[in-house]
Amino acid sequence: MQTSVIGSILSVNVGQPRLVPLGNNTVATAIFKSPVETTVAVRAHNLAGDRQADLRVHGGPYKAVYLYPSEHYPFWQEQLEVSDLPFGYFGENLTTSGFTEEGVCIGDQFRVGTAILQVTQPRMPCYKLNLRVGRNDMVKRFWLSMRSGIYFSIAKEGELTRGDAVEKIADGPERVTIADVVGLYIGKEWNADLLARALRSPLRGSWKQDIESRLTERA
């Protein structure tokens, strides 16, 4: 395919695990991210300066970089009844402009700075998003909004910084979007062809098994 610039990085955000209160206890979370202005190395399964608190459910090769579209921020400002939200608020490493879940397919590759990232799966938020926002219903609201954000693996290490272009360099097979996957999971999207393509796609994590299980339950 011919390469094309489809967006840009508005903010690069990193964070380290910290302890936060949960009832009478504390839990470790790295959902609190802060913007950085310097060039950031993209190495192995992380951005430099960023870590995950629980590697059983976060991080790893197929959740190495998390992107959230800035286009969703006005929606959440209205939903949460706040006048402003800082970039990185949803725990994303990259806050971008120019594309959303409807236009990004599983397996697509993008050049971001000198790194190459490959789309792997949507985000299924955990209870720590509730802690971040201070609402017990935030995980459910986030998920049902279908504004999941996008996880990437690191296909080529490199560096990136705020202001870099996001350039699409390769199409993934099957042309199944992140929004399609979420729609299949929650039962909002359904047809046999889409399901077959999703199951053939390089969709990572437990999504394929989960979608098949949920469809079996509905049958």
Commentary on this structure:
The model has no long low-confidence stretch (mean pLDDT 93). The protein has a single domain, classed as M1 Pyruvate Kinase, Domain 3. α4 packs parallel to α6. It has 219 residues and is of the alpha+beta class.
Strand percent estimate: 25-35%
Q: Choose one word for the global shape.
A: globular
CATH fold naming: M1 Pyruvate Kinase, Domain 3
Order of helices and strands: EEEEEEEHEEEHHEEEHHH
Helix vs. strand class = alpha+beta
Read across the widest sheet, the strand sequence of neighbours is 1-8-7-11-10-9-13
In CATH terms, what is the architecture?
A: Beta Barrel
CATH class term: Mainly Beta
What count of domains describes the coordinates?
1
Percent range for helical residues? Answer: 10-25%
List keywords for this structure.
219 residues; alpha+beta; M1 Pyruvate Kinase, Domain 3; 7-stranded mixed barrel; 3-stranded antiparallel beta sheet; 6 helices; 13 strands; 23% helix
Give a short synopsis of this structure.
The protein contains 6 helices and 13 strands.
List the helices and strands and how they pair.
Blueprint: E1 4-14, E2 18-22, E3 25-29, E4 34-36, E5 40-43, E6 46-47, E7 65-69, H1 73-80, E8 94-97, E9 109-112, E10 115-122, H2 128-133, H3 138-144, E11 150-156, E12 158-160, E13 165-170, H4 178-186, H5 192-200, H6 207-218
Parallel strand pairs: 7-8
Antiparallel strand pairs: 1-4, 1-8, 1-13, 2-3, 5-6, 5-12, 7-11, 9-10, 9-13, 10-11
Helix pairs in contact: 4-6
